[in-house]
């Protein structure tokens, strides 16, 4: 499938005369086709806890084909959006892919709302650690501020080994979760003490894969300071800020 077309001036002389802006040519323009919209039923709303403690609601949908793939989940972002769109469990909703990539709930089909559709209320306590959730002034998100929240710790470990951070190939989400729940790692420092013998008992882990992970961990020790800073997951310290700070 194509998601749009690019319209260009078809004469080299005119292109040279029109020139470029800082980001793009003045002699070409992209035209995006309207995103495909389909209807699905919202069966439930699940919550996930990010590495910074933000609680994100996700719509669990009847699987439908949207823009070439099957969609069964869509982020609802925050409590305000749920109330603003009056989204209820059991509703029939219109789904599209934002930017033809990320599934989103566009609107509720009110005239198809079931009589037993349930209004959703966000919890008052973290579904992972049961710590009271807070809403920081000026933010729309609910947040768990417990530094020992297991969900946050696991997400922080996943972030640390990710491509833009320490880029430890082979340490994916499933393996990090197993290592954490088997008490083999509890913070990022523990990753560098792992041995092949620690890895071998994990699910779907063989000698070669375990050795490759150990090699990747060793290789990551040569990563630059900016990758380490970004990997630590300090709030408000993104890729660019980590680079600037590392250069100081």
UniProtKB/TrEMBL annotation:
Top-level enzyme category: ligase
TM segment ranges: none
GO BP: any one term: DNA replication
NAD-dependent DNA ligase N-terminal domain: residues covered: 1-165
Start and end residues of each Helix-hairpin-helix DNA-binding motif class domain: 163-182, 197-216
Stored PROSITE patterns: DNA_LIGASE_N2
Catalytic activities: NAD(+) + (deoxyribonucleotide)n-3'-hydroxyl + 5'-phospho-(deoxyribonucleotide)m = (deoxyribonucleotide)n+m + AMP + beta-nicotinamide D-nucleotide
Superkingdom, taxonomy of origin: Bacteria
Keywords, sorted A to Z: DNA damage, DNA repair, DNA replication, Ligase, Magnesium, Manganese, Metal-binding, NAD, Zinc
This enzyme's EC code(s): 6.5.1.2
MF annotations from Gene Ontology: DNA binding; DNA ligase (NAD+) activity; metal ion binding
Family of the protein in this entry: Belongs to the NAD-dependent DNA ligase family. LigA subfamily.
Function: DNA ligase that catalyzes the formation of phosphodiester linkages between 5'-phosphoryl and 3'-hydroxyl groups in double-stranded DNA using NAD as a coenzyme and as the energy source for the reaction. It is essential for DNA replication and repair of damaged DNA.
Protein name, entry field: DNA ligase
Organism of origin: Staphylococcus felis
Highest classification ranks of the organism: Bacteria, Bacillati, Bacillota, Bacilli, Bacillales
